[in-house]
Design goal:
The complex is a heterotrimer of chains A (287), B (345) and C (238). Chain B is mostly helical. Chain B has 15 helices and no strands. Classes of the chains: A mainly alpha (287), B mainly alpha (345), C alpha/beta (238). At the A-B interface, helix 4, helix 9 and helix 11 of A face helix 5, helix 10 and helix 12 of B.
């Protein structure tokens, strides 16, 4: 039982990490709250669902989901957001409007029921581990999440591009004066973040499901994680995801009455005592 | 003497036009009267949020908290304890103000994204409580059976009551916008450090704004409870908060007319478009995006000068109300203006 | 040649630069002097593209760069050593230099490490753990690896120990020898005059005096008139 809950918590945290890391870096780099981020999850999930239905190929579904949301993110950035960097109210309108459009589009195409994506064959059973039944799919989630975290870490900390992103988060003006094309970087980060969120949508399909309203639920979770963990850093996203993942899993176990509110309670506490998040963000407490 | 007469005439004009606009729906079928009533309630809510978001510059994503707790207070008192509507109103306002006080002490320490998330967090915790504490709030079903204040039971008479409340609210907010206090708040939005250097107690000023915004939002909540007759957890939801914020941004933050216009557009679009097509959400989304592209400061600042030009005789009036950025000279404190804008603009 | 013609710059409603006109010959060092608040830093920021002029033209070798984005201006060959030892705090020394590295620059990372051995010692340390002097060296080194044609220096000696001032002096001499154009904003008059070929003095957003550095250095009354100090460092009255 203990091991099962632990695996639940860790795998959920990994899924949350994939969701939140794109938003965190986008926020740190672009200082824009992308309210459409949850919609990427939703759209990715629906596209993955359809692809699995047609081709029975889960891997292809994840690729399709990620590609679709990458395209949407690229379109949104290049077509709309690019001109309104630094203008908060405009960004809220744009990203919220897009949220509505994507949500409605998905509703029109896929309808209103809740779907779960069937996990890939071979991963739909459970393993007997130390006396506990562990669904193998959750192990896959943990593996993918950990790999993703490692990959993001490597890019962030060990490559020149990652250093440029960190520099731009530190001091955008100075980075530009050093020849770093922050706008192209922002475009790349935004699109990649969208792709990862779409990937998370497909991966989360077998566990959380895909349903109208998932976009808002996911968005709120991701925002909470970013606030708790601190924006602009991968470590912050990871820590935040772990905290929220564990609080949610064990919280709904021991305090089911306020399960929906417990995450926010945790967030309020963190903000009160450590307003910058666990891994201090840079300059986001100024408007 | 002549100037005074002209001033009085301008005021007379204003009252007349506002009265005409407010009275207009009364001839229509009950559905539209109710709808107009809804618009007025949301307009009050949006105006109260604008005090925070537009005037003070703090975007709250949890304004539904004040709205919801007041609505629930009135509902609880009405349905469980059967008290008079006067006590419902005062209690609702009181609870909202108290929430504003306590909440304000907490949230005023942060700004920007963290302010948004903290206010959202508070509202979400309250929402979770409303959903799950079935004994107190009726859970997901809510509290039904709320009656309206006694002479104003019918659709039309209640609408008149709402219109009067709205007019009162508008007057109060207009006074706040024009007052020194409004100037101080805008000064804090633009340059808090400078305001501190001028000796302004910025924390108290901001806290005061938060309490005011909560109280007026609570006012809207009580009216909502009376109009709908039923209060459910949706009043505390993030949808309500987000929708209100969108009304403010869409219409134009920082102005008086903006939030009102935003409320009109959002409520009408949602209700009327949904009768034509199921795709009302897409319509709303497209509307938001088009507004950003065409009128990034909101629709009111863009539309109003045009309307003013068309109605030339009323131009002076339209130009005089709630021009967020550059308030007219009457009612300004000249010394305060000079202090906050030394460059002379 | 770098030319500024009739530049007007505003901070919001504040009119900071008034029809500013100045020029710098290629390969020369121009000292931009003036009292605090005269607009010297604003001028450098405008040249670098961090601020846009509302009116006027900036030209480099005849090309109009007035409204270019700062990335483009940087890639054209402009580099800025900003006021206050501005570095990327969370990046290491090596990363600070690495992201600015321009393959065509005559100075490689190794050259920078040779000039500033203390930086080599600390190459994997985060920049915000460095001392003020080391951060200044890092800032200079970062400008060097860009291989600039024009270097904008904003008060490089402010608050620096004499050893660092000396080192900075050497670096600017080295740049001058390499034919690089330098615009030097400095409060340290002696330092500025010992390096500059020409001098431009600003007051209230305009250039009020322009001339050869030797002239300016030789005539104390000019220094007193425009700056309130002379090279003896004594304040002679404002």
């Amino acid at each position: 039982m203990v091991l099962e809950q632990l695996v639940n918590a860790v795998s959920y945290s990994m899924l949350l990490f994939l969701l939140a890391v794109g938003l965190s870096v986008t926020l740190g780099l672009l200082r824009v709250v992308n309210l459409t981020h949850g919609s990427y999850y939703l759209l990715g999930g629906y596209v993955g669902l359809s692809v699995v239905r047609w081709t029975h190929n889960f891997l292809l579904a994840t690729g399709a989901g990620a590609a679709t949301t990458a395209a949407l993110a690229a379109l949104m950035f290049w077509g709309l957001l690019r001109r309104f960097l630094g203008q908060e109210s405009a960004q809220v309108l744009i990203t919220f409007g897009s949220l509505f459009i994507v949500a409605d589009g998905c509703l029109a195409i896929w309808g209103g029921q809740t779907y779960t994506i069937p996990p890939p064959p071979g991963l739909s059973s459970s393993l007997l581990l130390a006396g506990a039944h562990i669904p193998t799919y959750l192990l896959l989630l943990i593996a993918v999440g950990a790999t993703g975290a490692a990959a993001v870490y490597w890019v962030f900390e060990r490559t020149r591009v990652g250093a440029m992103v960190r520099a731009a988060v530190d001091d955008r003006e100075l980075a530009e004066a050093c020849g770093v094309d922050v706008r192209a970087l922002s475009f790349g980060v935004f699109t990649l973040g969208g792709a990862i969120a779409g990937l998370a949508g497909v991966l989360g399909g077998p566990v959380i499901g895909v349903y109208p309203g998932a976009d808002l639920a996911v968005l709120l979770l991701a925002l909470v994680i970013v606030v708790v963990g601190g924006a602009g850093s991968m470590l912050g996203a990871l820590l935040g995801s772990l905290v929220i993942g564990f609080v949610t899993t064990y919280g709904s176990l021991y305090f089911p009455e306020i399960a929906s509110g417990i995450v926010y309670l945790a967030m309020v506490l963190v903000i009160l005592f450590r307003p910058q998040g666990l891994v201090p963000a840079r300059g986001l407490d100024q408007t | 003497m002549r100037g005074q007469r002209a001033g009085l005439m301008a005021w007379g004009f204003r009252v007349m036009v506002v009265g005409m606009v407010l009275a207009a729906p009364l001839g229509l079928p009950p559905f539209y009267v109710n709808l107009s009533g809804q618009v007025l309630i949301y307009a009050i809510l949006a105006l109260s949020l604008d005090l925070l978001a537009g005037v003070l510059g703090l975007w709250s994503l949890g304004h539904a908290a004040a709205f919801g707790v007041a609505a629930y207070t009135a509902a609880f008192l009405a349905e469980r304890l059967g008290v008079s509507w006067g006590i419902q109103l005062i209690s609702g306002l009181g609870v909202a103000a108290a929430l504003g006080c306590v909440g304000g002490l907490v949230v005023m320490r942060v700004r920007g994204l963290y302010f948004m998330m903290l206010t959202l967090g508070i509202a979400q915790v309250l929402w979770a409580l409303a959903e799950n504490w079935t004994g107190l709030t009726g859970g997901a079903d809510g509290i039904p059976g709320i009656g309206r204040p006694s002479p104003f039971i019918t659709t039309n008479s209640f609408y008149v009551f709402l219109a009067a409340c709205f007019a009162l609210n508008l007057l109060v907010l207009w006074a706040i916008h024009r007052s020194n206090y409004g100037l101080i708040l805008r000064g804090i939005r633009d340059n808090a450090l400078r305001m501190e250097a001028l000796g302004v107690a910025t924390f108290r000023a901001r806290l005061g704004a938060y309490v005011l915004a909560s109280t007026i939002g609570g006012f809207a909540g009580v009216l909502f409870a009376w109009q709908q007759g039923l209060v459910s957890p949706g009043v505390l939801s993030v949808d309500t908060s987000a929708e209100t914020l969108l009304m403010v941004i869409l219409g134009g933050a920082g102005t008086l007319g903006g939030p009102i216009l935003g409320a009109v557009i959002v409520v009408l679009l949602e209700t009327l478009v949904s009768t034509i097509t199921a795709r009302w959400m897409t319509a709303l989304g497209v509307c938001y995006i088009l507004t950003v592209l065409g009128a990034p400061q909101g629709l009111y600042p863009v539309l109003m000068p045009k309307v003013a030009r068309v109605f030339a005789t009323w131009g002076r009036w339209f130009g005089g109300i709630g021009d967020g950025k550059r308030a007219r000279v009457e009612g300004d404190s000249p010394s305060l203006r000079r202090a906050t804008h030394p460059e002379g603009h | 040649m770098l030319e500024l013609e009739g530049i007007d710059v505003f901070y919001g409603p504040s009119h900071v630069l008034h029809a500013l006109t100045a020029h710098v010959e290629e390969g020369e060092v121009l000292a931009l002097l003036g009292r605090s608040g005269a607009g010297k830093t604003t001028t450098l920021k405008t040249v670098m593209g961090w601020l846009r002029p509302r009116a006027g033209r900036i030209r480099w070798r005849g090309q109009d760069i007035s409204h270019w984005e700062s990335v483009r201006i940087a890639r054209l060959g402009f580099a800025m050593v900003a006021q206050g030892r501005r570095v990327f705090p969370s990046l290491s020394v090596a990363e600070n230099l690495g992201i600015a590295l321009n393959p065509t620059s005559p100075w490689s990372l190794e050259d920078v490490y040779q000039l500033f051995p203390r930086l080599e010692e600390r190459r994997y340390q985060a920049a915000n753990t460095l001392s003020g002097g080391e951060q200044q060296m890092l800032s200079l080194g970062r400008a060097l690896v860009r291989g600039p044609r024009v270097l904008l220096l904003d008060e490089p000696t402010e608050g620096m120990a004499p050893a660092i001032v000396q080192l900075t002096h050497q670096v600017v001499e080295m740049l001058r020898e390499a034919g690089i154009t330098v615009v030097l904003v400095e409060q340290n008059l002696a330092f500025a005059l010992s390096l500059a070929a020409r001098v431009a003095v600003m007051n209230k957003g305009q250039v009020v005096y322009e001339g050869r550095a030797q002239e300016f250095a030789a005539h104390r009354e000019l220094q007193v008139q425009y700056l309130g100090v002379s090279t003896t460092g004594l304040r002679v009255g404002s």
